[in-house]
From TrEMBL:
UniProt KW Calcium keyword: no
Segments forming domain Tyr recombinase: 137-346
Residues that span the membrane, as ranges: none
Region feature Disordered, mapped onto this chain: 1-21
GO terms for biological process, alphabetical: DNA integration; DNA recombination
Record organism: Paracoccus aminophilus JCM 7686
Name of the protein this chain belongs to: Integrase
Length: 347
């Protein structure tokens, strides 16, 4: 890997022109495989982190190309303390840990090694965690009654409303991430940027996804009512939008009358959830300015985990979690105070 003057990581240069064409083709293919090893969002975040570090090094007169644990220790100290050299803003512990991971990854791509366990890094990071770590700020879970209210805000007589209803219901029932929702195609192998596809079966919807740990299947059964059935909502969207090929969820064009060819950006899922939650009056007990921060695309995923009254292992499988502990982090209110140890102890 190499970097441009801004510090952004770029793929390694191609083989010289005098090399056989077959080797140049293999080099191009190798670069595409290397990029496929991580998601586009991860690469984008890592590139931004490297640029941030490289800029700090320039301002401090340090060489970013050399993996110096002492320099990295000073860098994460600057990030934690909000030094002027990093913009004067304190970074959260999770942000600092991600920046450190980005540096390790970047140096590895260059054939170098950053000793993360070196005392200049490990000890400083431990101190940062002890001094600045805070409980995670989880987004509010969208529970079934919340979802029903949100669906009523989606106009049934418009393509946009039908699309939004299908996205909310499929995202909730599948426990899908926002990138998984917008990355779906109408069939297998239809686009290069697709992250999966759907198959409509008599008993429900089979979703095949390419995730962080490989391919997995998600089963979305038909609902008890046509008004709240995710499969019925999706079938209606596909029929009226006349979609049988390519991206499943698309932008609406032609003054709201035609689906465009382009796939929705995954940020649109978060915007939809926030917009529908606000229109439905969710958490109306809070000031209006505080409500948008409560909800995100993950609120649908957390809602399924928090409301599905089934064995935890089925929820874990649906969400694609490697451990039950991760699944429990998504369960917001379902189990709160269900087991009362105070009364169980006789008080």
């Amino acid at each position: 890997m190499a970097s441009d003057p801004t510090g952004t990581l770029r793929p390694s240069p191609a083989l010289p022109d005098h090399q056989p064409p077959a080797l140049r083709d293999l080099a191009e293919r190798a670069r595409s495989y290397a990029e496929a090893a991580s998601s586009a969002n991860t690469r984008k975040a890592y590139a931004a982190d490297w640029k941030h570090f490289a800029g700090w090094c320039r301002r401090e007169g340090l060489d970013a190309s050399v993996p110096d644990p002492q320099a990295v220790g000073l860098y994460i100290t600057a990030c934690a303390s909000g030094a002027k050299s990093v913009g004067g803003r304190k970074n959260a512990v999770s942000t600092i840990e991600r920046r450190l991971s980005a540096l390790v990854w970047a140096y590895t791509q260059r054939g170098l090694s950053l000793a993360r366990r070196d005392r200049h890094i490990a000890t400083v990071l431990a101190g940062i965690r002890n001094s600045h770590a805070a409980p995670p700020r989880q987004k509010e879970a969208i529970l079934p009654e919340d979802l029903l209210a949100m669906l009523e805000t989606c106009a049934r007589g418009t393509l946009r409303g039908l699309r939004d209803r299908a996205m909310l219901l499929v995202g909730f029932a599948g426990g899908l991430r926002r990138s998984e929702i917008t990355g779906l195609d109408a069939g297998r192998g239809q686009t290069e940027d697709g992250r999966g596809w759907i198959e409509v079966l008599p008993a429900g919807l089979l979703v095949t996804l390419r995730g962080k740990t490989g391919w997995r299947e998600v089963e979305i059964g038909r609902g008890s009512s046509a008004a709240t059935c995710p499969v019925a909502a999706l079938e209606t969207w596909l029929k009226l939008a006349r979609i049988s090929q390519g991206p499943l969820f698309r932008r609406i064009t032609g003054q709201g009358k035609e689906p465009g060819p382009l796939r929705l950006n995954d940020r649109e899922v978060a915007r939809l959830v926030k917009r529908a939650a606000d229109a439905a009056g969710l958490r109306g007990d809070l000031p209006e300015k505080d409500r948008p921060a409560l909800f995100s695309g993950h609120s649908l995923r957390a809602g399924l985990a928090s409301s599905a009254e089934v064995d935890e292992r089925f929820v874990q499988k649906q969400l694609g979690h490697a451990s039950a502990e991760m699944t429990r982090r998504y369960q917001r209110r379902r189990d709160r105070f269900r087991v009362n140890l105070t009364k169980a102890a006789g008080l």
